Each structure stands twice: as structure tokens, then as C-alpha cells.
Amino acid sequence: MTDPLSDMIVRIKNGLQIQKDEIFIPFSKIKEETAKILKEKGFIDSYKKIQKGKREFLVLSLKYKNNLSAISEIKRISKPGRRFYIDTKEIPKLTKGFGVLILSTSKGIMADEEAKKIGIGGEVILRVW
Is the model's pTM score more than 0.90? Predict the structure, then answer.
């Protein structure tokens, strides 16, 4: 797999489209950190790491309210063929504070407001609202 984060996004979108309660994603640390931010920001109910045989998976519990998902859109910004970096001053405010940019910084994976608070920029991995 060349882009595991894109695979994660596609699995989330597919799960939301058929209103699945849980989705299974092959485990990696970057996916776990992304899931942690999605949980903190209220886009998913929970996540957990499980072992099936020799493989590890992340199980994401998707969040719905009145048959509408908490995630309206999730989009990959920086791609393997075209990286997208921003400075602290360039971090935008998304959809009146309801959206979040997830950044890969020198201090790890973090949400846009946390990166702005620390005063650090980085690679914009994805946008969720």
C-alpha cells in the first residue's frame, strides 16, 4: 500500500456511506494518532487497537446523530506525489471553528489549533469537518 492514510479515509467514507457502526483499519502509529484527534474533536465515538492472528487493526466506532454522521467531509490534503506544508501564520480557521486540520509536525501529529498554540507549522495531512 503506497498511501495508508488515503486508505483510512476511503474506509471511513465507505463506512459512513452505508452507516456502519464500526470499521476495521490496518494498524499504524500515524493512523492511531489521527484516530485519537478525531475522537478528541468529536468526529468518532471511540477507537481501539485489536489483534487478529498476526495482524493488528484499529477499530473505529463511527458517530451518528439522527442518522447523520458527525463527519460531513474528510479529505486528504498532502499526498505522496504533492506535499503541502504551512507555517503557523498560515493555519486557517475552518468552517467557523467546526472543522479541523490534522498536521504532521516535528512534535508529532496534532490538530491545527494545538499547532497554532505551540507556534509550529507542518505538513497538512487531512481536513475534517
Answer: yes
